[in-house]
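The authors assume throughout that readers already know how a fold can be written as discrete tokens. What matters is that the chain and its backbone geometry are given together, residue for residue. A single example would do more here than another paragraph of explanation. For illustration, here is how one protein appears when written out as sequence plus structure tokens.
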Amino acid sequence: MPANLGLTSIFGVLSVTLLWRSLFDLGQNLTPLPHPRHDGQLVQTGIYGLVRHPLYSGVIFYIVVLFFLLLLMRVGRLVGYIF
């Protein structure tokens, strides 16, 4: 089943949207540490009101995009060799 460029584009836009929107909605609550800030607040608005873990979802969708692009490159190279 060859990857579709349209599907890859949709996943790419979705992953970037999830990543940027979740970073924007977290604001000052964003931390690189695995525990929340002492003065942080639970964010339940914006993208966090729709998706439980939008940062993780964005990264997963981005990995799917990279997989599809790799598959497209290999299929394209194979078609180039045949024709």
